[in-house]
Amino acid sequence: MKMVRNSIGLGFILVLVGACNYTMHPELAGSGVAMPPSDRCQECHTVIFEEWRNSPHSKAYTNEPFKGITANYKVTACLPCHAPESVFDGEKKLRKTRHEEGVNCQSCHLVEGVLQGPVEQHLPFNIHPIKQVDTYRKSEFCGKCHSRTFAEYEQSGRTKKTCQECHMPKVRRTIIDNKPWVWSKDEYDFRRHSFNVMDLAEIGSKIELAVVLAGQHPPGGQIIIENREIPHNIPTGTYGYHEIRLNLYLLDDLGEPKAQQSFSFTQEMKTAIKPGEKRVIPFVFSDQLALPFAVKAVLIRADMDQQESHVISQRLEVF
Q1: Rounded Cα distance, 56 and 53, in Å
Q2: What's the pLDDT band for 4 if we cut at 50, 70, 90?
Q3: Which residues fall within 8 angstroms of residue 240, CB to CB, at 6 or more apart?
Q4: Is the pLDDT at 61 greater than 50, yes or no?
Q5: Which of 214, 215, 261, 265 counts the most CB atoms within 10 A of its CB?
Q6: 154-169: b (≥16 Cβ within 10 Å) or e
Q7: How far is 8 from 3, CA to CA, in rounded Å?
């Protein structure tokens, strides 16, 4: 009888060990043409999937500016970074399938047949091949694609937040939030997959904009822009269209604009404002106005359509 009980106990242990090594869906770690669609991830990670689906990463390949710049994908050199097989490849390779998913779940998390992430395994068996690594909590990870911005960040020499702290807001929640594994209620500190550009009001709070009037005839003075807290250039980016524009308006005593000047800051022209830099921009209007008059400075993030709908900061000074 004792031998039977020992055999049953040993058998139970072997079953547990087998379960711990069992992987239910190895196909979720497929690569190349065997790579599953990202909506398979939605089956367990519903909230994370929705954040990604509404993020710039999911639209990296299909957004209209990218299609325009690449002449509807004819400029093939740009394509691998916008639908990469893996961001861990030194030289990015265009994914063999599902280009429309842009930078998808597998681009960032699939490494050599294993789905990696910053949180430890918390089930007694594997849903898919999984590995915990700390790389995802470090700015170096974002630098695998955003190399120019990461270099600016490194060279700023400041005590600074990680890329993730600004662009992936912190959240505490369960990782699995859909059936059948929703019973796993463990919550973890990790980050939203929104990959958002910082809110414009928040950007404005980190940039100092001032108007200093120095003359009445003709109206003139200086605009001061200081990148106080953003640890990379403004604007930043490696390719594509990136512009911050300063528009100045000379206003009469009724607040009506009588003249305008514009100043452009871009990466391509090497006029972007570096971390900690204070840029002083002199200006003079040729128009003569009776007192009182005012100068309004509006700092905007420009889009391809050149609309002023993205105001970062504005100041008004009356003479």
Answers
A1: 8
A2: very low
A3: 65, 66, 69
A4: yes
A5: 265
A6: eebeeebebbbebbbe
A7: 9
Residues 66-87, buried b or exposed e (16+ Cβ, 10 A)?
A: beeebeeeeeeebbebbbbbbb
Q: Do residues 83 and 213 make contact, with C-beta atoms less than 8 angstroms apart?
A: no
> In the numeric block, which tokens belong to residue 52?
């990604």
Domain boundaries, the chain: 25-191, 200-318
Q: Which amino acid is at 212?
A: V
* CA dist., res. 229 & res. 212, Å (int): 22
Tell me the per-residue pLDDT of 113-145, one tens digit each, with 9 for 90 and over: 999 999 887 777 788 889 999 999 999 999 999
What CA–CA distance (Å, rounded) separates 220 from 285? Answer: 6
Contacts of 181 (CB under 8 A, 6+ apart): 44, 123, 127
What pLDDT, in 10s, does the model give residues 162-212? 999 999 999 998 888 876 666 566 788 889 999 988 777 888 899 999 999
Residue 229 to residue 298: CA distance in whole angstroms: 19
Domain 200-318 class in CATH: mainly beta
Please give the order of strands across the beta sheet that includes 257-266: 257-266, 243-251, 294-302, 311-318
